[in-house]
């Protein structure tokens, strides 16, 4: 278990495992509700998902990063707006999700070493191809929402290039979590846009939520590992300064 849990608090593992279990239990019920198209059950479970993840982060994080908590608030707001079938609510939700993505990109850049231009460009290519494919399928139907989708795509392609380029540069555990998270988010958006503008299958929405839930947890794991690395580095530096 991560350093932030603390060796002097044996009961903390139980609390952490309980919050994780609640997060995945609520998420599973929400995914089933999406499949059954039970709006009342969705309204009961979806608002709990991000608060549970935020509680897990607050309990385990050694640094309590306000940017990550604000990002979770933005994605929570986007999820609430996406419940509605009204296109205006969906557009507003996309704006909140774009703000979430900008905050996460900023946070990742602060936590990891940005790869060089060549790894970044190579990393962008797979995500660029995915978005070009989606645009080719849905361009005629998007109309007023196209420019917002394009903006969302630019941030997603850059974030994907950053994650994959960083993984190529240094393939450690944290970067693996980040890359998996980014790929899951990308396919979530792919399914969302295809369902909204091209073809609607009952399985698309629960599958997108499954990818989203897993992606958020992977992102949390990445941030926790990087924060623990930073704390250990600061502690070592402090010890060296005192002994000097």
Please give a structural write-up:
This protein is mainly alpha-helical and 244 residues long. Helix content is 84%, strand content 0%. It is built from 8 helices and no strands. Helix 5 runs parallel beside helix 7 (173-197). It is globular.
What's the structural blueprint in terms of helices and strands?
Elements: H1 12-36, H2 39-60, H3 66-82, H4 87-111, H5 117-142, H6 146-169, H7 173-197, H8 204-243
Helix pairs in contact: 1-2, 1-8, 2-3, 2-8, 3-4, 4-6, 5-6, 5-7, 6-7, 7-8
Spell out the key features of this protein.
244 residues; mainly alpha; 0% strand; disordered N terminus
Helix content: over 70%
Major sheet: size, sense and barrel closure? none
How many distinct helices? Answer: 8
Question: Which secondary-structure class do the elements indicate?
Answer: mainly alpha
